[in-house]
Design goal:
The protein is 64% helix and 9% strand. The chain has 613 residues and is of the alpha/beta class. It has a six-stranded mixed β-sheet, sandwiched between helices. A four-stranded antiparallel β-sheet has the order 2-1-4-5, covered by helices on one side. Helix 9 runs antiparallel to helix 12. Bound molecules: adenosine-5'-triphosphate. Adenosine-5'-triphosphate binds at residues 138, 376, 379, 383, 401, 403-409. Its main location: membrane.
Length: 613
Amino acid sequence: MPQAQLNLRERFSAMRNIRPFLAEIWSTSKSLTIAAVIIRLLRALFPIITLYIGKLIIDEAIRLVGVGVTDDLMLALQNGALNDLLLFLGLEFALAVANDLFGRLSGYVDSVLSEMFTNATSVRLMEHASTLDLEDFENADLQDQLERARRQTMGRMSLMSQLFGQAQDLITILTFGAGLLAYAPWLIVLLAVALLPAFIGESHFNAQNYSLNFQWTPERRQLEYLRQMGSSVETAKEVKIFNLNRFFIERFRFLSQKFFDANRKLAARRAFWGTLLSALGTLGYYIAYAYIAWRTVRGDFSIGDLTFLAGSFRRLRQLLESLLTGFSQVASQALYLDDLYSFFRIQPEIISKPNALPVPSPIRQGFVFDDVGFRYEGSDRWALRHLSFELHAGEVLALVGENGAGKTTLVKLLARLYDPDEGRITLDGIDLREYDLDDLRANIGVIFQDFVRYHMTAAENIGVGQVEDMTNRSRIEDAARRGMADQVVAGLERGYDQVIGRRFKEGVDLSGGQWQKIAIARAYMRDAQVMILDEPTAALDARSEFEVFERFKELSDDKTAILISHRFSSVRMADRILVLADGKVEASGTHAELMEQGGRYAELFELQAAGYR
Ligand SMILES: Nc1ncnc2c1ncn2[C@@H]1O[C@H](COP(=O)(O)OP(=O)(O)OP(=O)(O)O)[C@@H](O)[C@H]1O
């Protein structure tokens, strides 16, 4: 796991991420990677060749001055005195053109390659996120981590060019180093030593920057949230009524200002130390320069040598500096890669065992909750505890209970969105965990109270219930009829092809109850053995809910079903009713039996009935 504060060793240990990073680039496109490397390799040789030809030009010019050439240019050209000079100049020109061409070429290859890499990584990120548990998504730390990882897919594009650039610079440095070795070897050492402080400073501040970004991830997520709250269709209505815009803007301003201040302080310190430390590097360069000048004056070096050496040193200094700061940037970028890779390392816990069993078809006995206990992560309250009951194959069971009693949690456990912390759930006598997860989910159709409103066409909104049949219009129409969504669709201008939801231009919005009918139709898309309606009917008018449930009961004749509703008029249709309180079963029986018992059920039923009298 990446941490907020890192010591030097930890910072460099992040470099281990470079290898898998390069391996991924390689597997993104082998041919482009090879092209990028070859172009860089060639470009690496240009600087020394250019400088050396420059030296030859000066030496030749000085030689010509010494031997004396005629004033007449045409004559000089004709008798060949200028041949060498012209050849060198021509070469230098060709090099300059080629250098420019290769620069553009490598920019192009890099951008194509990194775009491909970014897309591939985004897809991997989505794929991995899709395997994670619901519990992972509910964890704020994971949300932070996902956010950081997401930023990385965009932010790491430059890392590739930088790494390749580093390799190129390194080769150029070696060529310069080899050239200079002959003249003044210890000056190279002097340059390297003088640059070291700047390098350490850079890498220190890069790590600080990373820590700052890391520590501020929750706030940055909050900023993103505030920005959305203030500007989305979904929130606009309430935000306007309560006049919350100012409140959101103020909060945004306050948070962003704090982040900005922290950032600015760091940037200022960085600028101060950066200037100071790089002045040391400059000093090293001028000492070297003075030395070469002195040797030239003494007659050890020619004027051409002087320009070559001075140029080499200047370039060498720039290159070393950019190599070192680049290296510290790469090291800090490698830290960011840690965010990406640590996200990929998160493993889901709810998975199918090897050789998992298929779900029995048909289900013979049904489900048994055997002393089940479940606690949400980070909560010390048990949402369910000592919960025992049976859901018989083919029965329609209704769950009632006050808010927070644990009804939805029970359903989530049944669909294995979570596993129980205590006790076990069996299906036909075998622990749910022994069954194939995909098969289990395929056999359970659940519509939750907070079902998703897809801003897509009406047909797609229903079709998502069985993705494989997304384009099977007759099946969709059939499901719509069963869920009573056909009347809703009939009222849409473009019928099943009408985009619903306000987010997109051609979309029309539906009423809460209409949305629910669409969602219920979604449940009918799936020919699941177990059907669960977790209160997706709250916004339906009384008649509609009654009809939905009546039809649901009829249509789930051969199915096992669970109904959750706060409306007792609907609940009483169930074969059996389970009253949940504080995470366990308080009573169970048919409507008549429960009324007879006169407990909480009878009390709540009377309360509701009285309301209608
Ligand atoms: N994702 C979650 N993380 C932490 N606690 C949760 C989560 N979801 C529910 N809880 C808690 O678990 C308990 C049971 O919640 P559950 O949603 O199962 O109740 P419910 O009976 O479906 O309520 P309602 O009638 O309001 O839909 C509640 O105390 C709730 O606060």
